[in-house]
């Protein structure tokens, strides 16, 4: 029970408690306390417990990330006069990669952890809908704006809805229980309401990839029909959102406007990086109270150039080449490592994350998606370990795979 409470607290801390406006600065304190708690758990285990662990397949790239972040502090200091203490605090999101090591210490049971992921996806869905229908009233301290016929709410935690979506589809494929198909459709609601074309396109591709490559589905034709049948009322319900997205795309094409993300990437890669060494080390994490932070803030307010909006390029500019190398290693290791069939949804989730994060959002450098990524890496390690116990044995029949309990 204590183990579960600790994991839930760390997840909530990574989300900054969804930035509830009423909590104010307490959100940051909870976020920072999560880091302290992870460090404490890891140190106590190393000094006293010495927990016997399964193979940690992603330990090298995570070490590379910490090395990259350490090196970036020097460029922040020498090129932009941002003090080391300031940089240490401003890059605190990266410390949530310790969640990977913490999970290996706590060793949550696989089905229990997957059940927790589904609950977190439902919690995110409820929080999103509350803020969506409360607009313009601010319940959570997040960016909100009305465009493309919908209200865009930039609320942390969307990754839980997405991984829960693929997990529920996997359970539905293995059990044919319609409540999991219903849950999967529920998890799509925030993506549809947000109105991001790239996210919708990627989720459709990922869904069909999961469907096609699920080799143990007995009747693919039936399940394809059911999925399409479920999407029809979803489209009709959100028809206005889809129509507005199409009109926005046509307007942008007619005006010939250049994507602000492309302009931002060009600027940060050619004019912002102070010297050649910074291509290796990065510029460091900006702080609002430093010259570096004020400069990046001026660029965002004047030109709409955000490091967080240009995906892996933003990671590269901030933390350098080693960080990008580490991300690539994580992605390829996850996509190609051997795991059990019941856990294959992890690969489809990474398909979504990579193709959405890399060009658009710098998700590998922010606490909420970092904890989601570390959760996937831990589950992949568990699955890889279970598979290695009987490498010559055939995979169990998919009908014998049990669903998470109490759902």
Q: From the helix content, strand content and strand pairing, which structural class follows?
A: mainly alpha
Distance between the termini: 18 Å
Return the string of H and E elements: HHHHHHEEHHHHHHHHHHHH
- Tell me the total number of β-strands: 2
Low-confidence residue ranges = 252-258, 393-401
Number of helices: 18
Query: What's the Cα radius of gyration?
Result: 22 Å
Oligomer: single chain
What general outline do the C-alpha atoms trace? globular
Percent of residues in helices comes to 55-70%
Please give the largest β-sheet.
2 strands, antiparallel
- Give the integer mean of the pLDDT values: 82
Tell me what portion of residues adopts beta-strand conformation. under 5%
Strands ordered across the widest β-sheet:
1-2
């Amino acid at each position: 029970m204590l183990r579960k409470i600790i994991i839930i607290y760390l997840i909530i801390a990574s989300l900054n408690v969804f930035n509830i406006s009423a909590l104010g600065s307490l959100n940051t304190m909870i976020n920072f306390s999560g880091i302290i708690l992870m460090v404490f758990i890891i140190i106590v285990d190393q000094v006293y417990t010495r927990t016997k662990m399964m193979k940690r397949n992603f330990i090298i790239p995570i070490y590379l990330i910490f090395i990259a972040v350490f090196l970036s502090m020097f460029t922040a200091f020498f090129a932009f006069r941002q003090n080391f203490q300031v940089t240490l605090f401003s890059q605190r999101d990266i410390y949530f990669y310790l969640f990977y090591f913490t999970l290996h210490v706590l060793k949550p049971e696989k089905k229990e952890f997957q059940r927790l992921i589904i609950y977190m996806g439902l919690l995110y869905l409820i929080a999103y809908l509350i803020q969506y229908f409360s607009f313009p009233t601010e319940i959570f301290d997040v960016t909100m704006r009305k465009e493309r016929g919908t209200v865009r709410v930039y609320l942390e935690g969307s990754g839980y809805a997405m991984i829960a979506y693929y997990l529920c589809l996997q359970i539905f494929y293995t059990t044919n229980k319609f409540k999991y198909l219903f849950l999967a459709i529920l998890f799509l609601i925030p993506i549809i309401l947000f109105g991001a074309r790239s996210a919708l396109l990627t989720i459709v591709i990922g869904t069909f990839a999961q469907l096609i490559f699920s080799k143990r589905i007995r009747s693919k034709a039936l399940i394809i029909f059911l999925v399409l049948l479920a999407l029809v009322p979803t489209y009709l319900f959100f028809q206005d959102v889809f129509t507005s997205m199409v009109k926005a795309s046509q307007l942008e094409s007619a005006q010939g406007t250049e994507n602000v993300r492309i302009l931002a990437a060009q600027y940060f890669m050619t004019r912002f990086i102070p010297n050649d060494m910074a291509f290796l080390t990065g510029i460091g994490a900006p702080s609002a109270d430093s010259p570096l932070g004020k400069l990046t803030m001026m660029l965002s307010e004047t030109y709409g150039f955000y490091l967080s909006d240009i995906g892996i390029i933003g990671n590269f500019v901030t933390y350098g080449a080693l960080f990008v190398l580490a991300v690539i290693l994580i992605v390829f290791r996850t996509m190609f490592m051997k795991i059990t069939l019941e856990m294959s949804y992890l690969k489809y989730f990474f398909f979504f994350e990579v193709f959405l994060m890399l060009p658009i959002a710098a998700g590998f450098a922010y606490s909420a998606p970092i904890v989601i990524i570390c959760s996937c890496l831990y589950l992949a390690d568990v699955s890889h370990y279970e598979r290695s116990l009987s490498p010559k044995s055939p995979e169990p029949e998919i009908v014998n795979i049990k669903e998470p309990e109490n759902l």
